């Protein structure tokens, strides 16, 4: 399996509040997916490369982040570095039920300027060499209006050139500048029209569209003609739709959940990895459940290497 995956998005410094104090790391939805993809490929010794596309500063913390990604096996060749910007930062506080509260400092983060400062033709030349492009709703939400148009035009050209596009809406209301969901809806709909593999979360979709049932959500999403639609429902399982056929894929109960950070991101990584190797969406969903089920048993977005399951 010789494949190249490009992951587009933002990574931030992560501060985890624990019983013993504060612990520093890094995280961001797309970076989490990139790391888990790279780990799965390396563990299986398959020829799958994962490149991360973003922007950071030229400070020591940005250096540390890039070094950490490289140690994970993520290619950082195309990470832009801006001397006048810094990475964003977020703090996680965990609740007793395993859910978490986030506090962000990201308004002037380097990643917000990546599309605006880079040349689209140059990015297209680089990215068109990749088999699969992965991005999320956060990749979209951090762009200003002009950059958003540039990014969507880039994805459209890549889709037309034969790249597979995988997308997770990962709706975060606070990231969108308008008080109504209309802008996020329009942006996501434009992206879904270019998407081959949609890895979505039922709660996010219903919050964005005020839908009352899973059937309502599935009906709306299937109108996009997606080759693969995965609608995740947390600990219950996920609905997989391919070629118009719906199949529910349940999870195995996890009784020692401590932190659900990156559950969806890790699911997406395992799904994409398994689908590339098997071309079987159900096997891919089961792999997603396996990895996500292990991730939520540990604190932080990126679990220890020795805690990784075998898929």
TrEMBL record:
Protein species of origin: Vibrio tarriae
High-level lineage: Bacteria, Pseudomonadati, Pseudomonadota, Gammaproteobacteria, Vibrionales
Pfam family of the protein (one): PfkB
Sequence ranges assigned to domain Carbohydrate kinase PfkB in this UniProt record: 3-305
EC code(s) of this entry: 2.7.1.45
Swiss-Prot/TrEMBL GO biological process terms: D-galacturonate catabolic process; D-glucuronate catabolic process; DNA damage response
GO molecular function ontology, one term from the record: ATP binding
Alphabetically ordered keywords of this record: ATP-binding, Carbohydrate metabolism, Kinase, Nucleotide-binding, Transferase
Functional summary from the UniProt entry: Catalyzes the phosphorylation of 2-keto-3-deoxygluconate (KDG) to produce 2-keto-3-deoxy-6-phosphogluconate (KDPG).
Group of enzyme by EC: transferase
Family statement: Belongs to the carbohydrate kinase PfkB family.
Example of a GO cellular component annotation carried by this entry: cytosol
Catalysed reaction equations from the record: 2-dehydro-3-deoxy-D-gluconate + ATP = 2-dehydro-3-deoxy-6-phospho-D-gluconate + ADP + H(+)
Pathway: Carbohydrate acid metabolism; 2-dehydro-3-deoxy-D-gluconate degradation; D-glyceraldehyde 3-phosphate and pyruvate from 2-dehydro-3-deoxy-D-gluconate: step 1/2
Protein name: 2-dehydro-3-deoxygluconokinase
């Amino acid at each position: 399996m010789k494949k190249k995956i490009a992951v587009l998005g933002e990574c931030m410094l992560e501060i985890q509040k624990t019983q013993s104090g504060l612990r520093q790391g890094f995280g961001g939805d797309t970076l989490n997916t990139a790391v888990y993809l790279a780990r799965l490929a390396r563990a299986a010794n398959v020829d799958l490369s994962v490149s991360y596309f973003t922007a950071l500063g030229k400070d020591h913390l940005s250096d540390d982040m890039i070094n950490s990604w490289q140690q994970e096996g993520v290619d950082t060749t195309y990470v832009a570095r801006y001397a006048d910007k810094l990475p964003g930062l977020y703090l996680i506080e965990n609740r007793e039920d395993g859910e978490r509260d986030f506090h962000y400092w990201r308004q002037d983060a380097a990643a917000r300027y990546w599309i605006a400062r880079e040349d689209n033709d140059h990015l297209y030349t680089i990215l068109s060499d990749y088999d699969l492009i992965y991005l999320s709703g956060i990749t979209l939400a951090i762009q200003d209006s002009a950059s958003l148009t540039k990014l969507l035009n880039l994805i459209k050209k890549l889709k037309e050139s034969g790249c597979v596009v995988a997308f997770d809406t990962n709706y975060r209301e606070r990231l969108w500048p308008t008080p109504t969901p209309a802008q996020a809806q329009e942006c996501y709909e434009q992206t879904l029209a270019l998407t081959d593999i949609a890895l979505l979360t039922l709660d996010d979709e219903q919050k964005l569209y005020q839908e009352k049932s899973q059937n309502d959500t599935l009906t709306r999403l299937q109108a996009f003609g997606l080759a693969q639609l995965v609608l995740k429902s947390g600990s219950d399982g996920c609905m997989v739709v391919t070629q118009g056929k719906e199949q529910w894929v349940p999870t195995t109960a996890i009784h020692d959940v401590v932190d659900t950070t990156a559950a969806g991101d890790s699911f997406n990584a395992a799904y994409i990895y398994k689908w590339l190797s098997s071309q079987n969406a159900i096997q891919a969903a089961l792999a997603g459940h396996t990895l996500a089920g292990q991730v939520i048993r540990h604190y932080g977005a990126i679990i220890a290497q020795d805690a990784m399951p075998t898929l």
